[in-house]
Write a structure and sequence with these properties.
It is a single chain. With 334 residues, the chain is of the alpha/beta class. It has twelve helices and 13 strands. Strand 12, helix 10 and strand 13 form a beta-alpha-beta unit.
Length: 334
């Protein structure tokens, strides 16, 4: 029903406006999802224990969809095993000027240059205080106006504010939509940032997993640096990958828009990165695989390449909640 009726209607309108419309619909009429979508699968065989946390199933929602932690209960009810909120910054910011979100329908893709638009970490915390039983990841970043040499303070601020209310953290230094942010992926500044967060984490009564989200555009040498950094800082794992700057093979009219590309065109590269990290590290740390998952087969490729968990974003928009069920059904048949 989603792909035949709902999606064609939604795709007639501006993607960012549709995003907020859908949010309001789910928030106020979430009970209708039971009429339109199949009941989520709940089965003990789908449970996964990764970096000390128990996930009810391995299919999560990637950051960027529920930036401000407004919908984590409703989205969890659709069948996700975990929800990652953010990217959150210390201060509220509007993000980049609109129009900043583009559908590439012929490519089953999206280009976004949102720019960490969010209401600030403290407003998200107030909503997270009402969390009942959803496993939450907190994706954190820096404000646009914060220079890179002071970025660590932004990450520390978000870490401290979110610590009581999320189950794991994700350090986002890989978005292409905040000027100079990706420079923080270089070995020296990244090691310093993660080391300082880990030092704070170690002082907590119960430290929480810290993960690093990386870009798919890194070279093999840079990926080897990432492996070294993970081992040196002893963070819990990696999320591979964020959006790409590549436009190879695209055919849609909006293909030259600036921003990060997500969706089917990213599938191959993100899987390559997962496999490279897994093999070159000797499976030394867990990986959450994300990028171009539009079918159960796509999900299995990520898991077979070395991912312990997966996340959806663009695939969820194109395929609907049925994709979550399809993936979990396939996993149960293995």
């Amino acid at each position: 029903m989603y792909k035949s009726i709902i999606r064609p209607i939604l795709f007639k309108f501006d993607p960012e406006e549709v995003h907020y419309f859908t949010f309001n619909l789910l928030k106020n009429f979430g009970f209708l999802t039971k009429l339109f979508f199949p009941k989520p699968i709940e089965d003990k065989r789908l449970e996964r224990e990764v970096f000390g946390l128990k996930f009810k199933n391995p299919v999560g929602l990637a950051a960027g969809f529920d930036k401000d932690a407004k919908m984590f209960h409703e989205l969890s009810d659709l069948g996700f095993g975990f929800i990652e909120i953010g990217t959150l910054t210390p201060k509220p910011q509007e993000g980049n000027p609109k129009k900043r979100l583009f559908r590439l329908k012929e490519d089953s893709a999206i280009i976004n240059r949102m720019g960490f638009n969010n209401g600030g970490v403290e407003t998200a915390v107030e909503r997270l205080k009402k969390n009942k039983n959803v496993l939450i990841g907190g994706n954190i970043g820096k404000n646009k106006v914060t220079p890179n040499e002071e970025a660590v303070n932004d990450y520390i601020f978000c870490f401290e504010k979110l610590f009581p209310y999320v189950d794991y953290f994700v350090v986002n230094v890989s978005s292409p939509n905040t000027p100079n942010l990706r420079a923080l992926q270089e070995k020296e500044p990244l090691t310093q940032l993660l080391s300082e967060l880990q030092e704070l984490n170690a002082k907590k009564e119960k430290p929480k997993p810290i993960l690093l989200k990386i870009a798919p555009d890194l070279s093999d040498d840079q990926l080897l640096d990432i492996i070294d950094i993970v081992k040196d800082t002893k963070i819990a794992g990696v999320i591979a990958t964020n959006t790409t700057l590549s436009r190879e093979g695209l055919v849609s009219d909006s293909k030259e828009e600036a921003g990060g590309l997500s969706g089917k065109p990213l599938a191959k590269r993100s899987t390559e990165v997962i496999r490279f990290l897994s093999e070159k590290s000797g499976k030394a740390f867990p990986i959450i695989g994300v990028g171009g998952i539009h079918s159960a087969e796509d999900a299995l490729e990520k898991l077979e390449a070395g991912a312990s968990l997966i996340q959806l974003y663009t695939g969820f928009i194109y395929e609907g909640p049925e994709l979550i069920r399809e993936i979990n059904e396939r996993l149960l048949k293995q």
